[in-house]
Write a structure and sequence with these properties.
12 strands, 7-stranded mixed sheet, alpha/beta, Isopropylmalate Dehydrogenase, globular
Amino acid sequence: MIRIIVDCYGGDHSPQAQVEGAIAALREHDDLCLVLTGDEAELRSILDGQGTYDRDRISVVHAPQVIGCNEKPTDAIRLKKDSSMMSAVRLLREDDDIAGLVSCGSTGALVAASMLRIGRVPGVIRPAFCPILPTMAGGIVGICDTGANVDITPDHLVQYAVMGSLYLQKVYGIAEPRVALLNIGVEAEKGDDLRRRAYPLLQQTPGIRFVGNMESRDLLSGNYDLVVTDGFAGNVLVKSAEGTCLEMLKKLKKDICSRTLYKLGALLMSRMFKEEKAFMNYQNYGGSVMLGCAKVVVKGHGSSRASAVARCIDQCYRMKREQLSEGIEQAIAHCPTEQSASQNEAPATVG
């Protein structure tokens, strides 16, 4: 059995979405057990209304406090030890039989708690977020990092490429993920000092398929499977893409409603519009996995509904089943670093 904890509070639709998503995941995987953290009375009341499911594979841990998204992360994890998130993190750290954690709560608190309480895979400099977006070619693209680390070095980017490639291989079945470096142009010499130093290092990294720089406009083109970047640029990239898609949908709806002829055309194309809406709905793609943590951590969107929570649990389940953390530890040991690269390039001295 694979045991996963679900932090049931902190999201816009908590705890209803978390409980419904948990039941959906249980029905999908026969070898899955779930632990729900939060207000026990409320959670059991919701569970009682979920119909038929295997009650032996789900349990509740009482955790009455909630960490708000506007709270300072370090204060929250120090002062709210009985919160649903900190109770989940504590269980994940102390129980070797628990594989991972899913939370839709405060991103800052989850990152801080994971770093301080769970720790890193040996050799990993710092864990990084890696969400998944759909592409115009019908596939997916991962972005690593999207907010966990703002100030980084070329060595971070190399590790992001290695961890993200393994994630896409093991969880999504992409044999040789095409890895790109987010930049302001595709030429090798483009970008700031960080990216100019990282480019040759990525070329030397074994086990990844580095295809060069990528401009932000090509994120959803389908020409790349993984994009590596710092957390600041990655966060801006993802939110810009999501926001653009949402605003385009709003404009399309407004334009259709503006004329009777357009409404008639939309009626004939209603099936296509539903498919496109589902294609661009982030709820169908799960959450951001925190690659490099000693145990599996998946951060769901704050506005996640039941279907998105179920996808997050599925991500967590597959990462454990495929032993992703163990694979990362082995691969990281062979990563080149700036120091090792400079030593290899240093001219031999004459005795």
